[in-house]
Amino acid sequence: MINDLDNTLRQLLMSAGQLDPADIDISFDLPNREWAARISKPTINCYMFDVRENLDAREQGWNTTRVASGETNRRQPALRFSLTYLITVWTREVEDEHQLLWHTLQTLTRFPVLPPEYLKGSLLSAVEQGFTIVSAIAKPGGVLNSPGEFWAALENHLKPSLSYVVTLPLDREAVPAGPPTLTARLRTRLTDGPTEEIAWFGGIVRDQSGAPLPQITVFLEGHFDQSITDAEGRFRLRGPAPGQHTLVAQIGSQRQRYPVDFPSNTYDLSIERGDL
């Protein structure tokens, strides 16, 4: 994704900034003394020197999705990482340097959110998945606190620079939660006594769009045991004897009944929001 960001930044500066690649070059190399001695035309150097997680944008919790096979995947929200570029301009004349640096600032200031028409590769895919790629230019309190030390480490002279920060999403892989536990059985036996079997079953309550419904009371008609769905719409009940039964979903005094066989392949319930 970092290479795609470099290519996006190149495209943004060239196209939106209306720069001619025959006259101006864009480089992502380390701007040390050896590099500076090799450039042959005015160059905008975009050196990425810092990557760190944006903790202010971190989201907590898990998202649960069910795939076509019936398995359930749990995925944590994407992390956001801020990538910081040090942008400098290299020309023969100071006046040209200042003019091109200001032009670069004007160009990047126009795009606090990177537009899709300039995005490359995985960045465009991330936007198509619903992510937003934001940027900030020349904001106070950046990560480069001592520019002089930075340039001294490169054995190069101090130059005016722009700090450019782009925040990218890192989508964490889905963690398979395994097939849903529809029915679980436990056999117990007291010493010299008969074996007793206890069964549980569970499912998910969803609306017609597939969104899970929390705070729905679910119980078997004629039984005292009941369960209230959690934030992901899940419920769990003690199983009845094998045969036909009726599951009831209730909010307040309103109820909806579902005939089920026990045991069964699924106990998921679908509710129209207007039904309860």
Spans with pLDDT under 50 lasting ≥5 residues? none
Quaternary structure state of the chains depicted? single chain
Largest sheet entry: 5 strands, mixed
The tally of domains stands at 2
**What structural category do the secondary elements indicate?**
alpha+beta
Cα gyration radius (Å): 30 Å
Instruction: Describe the strand arrangement of the main beta sheet, using strand numbers.
Output: 1-2-5-7-6
Tally of contiguous helical segments: 5
N- to C-terminal separation? 46 Å
Shape: elongated
| Estimated share of beta-strand residues | 35-45%
| Count of strand segments | 16
Order of helices and strands: HEHEEEEHHEHEEEEEEEEEE
Helix content: 10-25%
Tell me, rounded to a whole number, the average pLDDT.
84
Short description:
This protein is of the alpha+beta class and 276 residues long.
List the helices and strands and how they pair.
Layout: H1 2-16, E1 25-27, H2 33-38, E2 43-53, E3 63-66, E4 72-75, E5 79-90, H3 94-109, H4 122-128, E6 134-137, H5 147-153, E7 162-170, E8 175-176, E9 183-189, E10 195-207, E11 217-220, E12 226-228, E13 234-238, E14 243-251, E15 254-262, E16 269-271
Parallel strand pairs: 1-2, 10-16
Antiparallel strand pairs: 2-5, 3-4, 4-8, 5-7, 6-7, 9-10, 10-13, 11-12, 11-14, 14-15
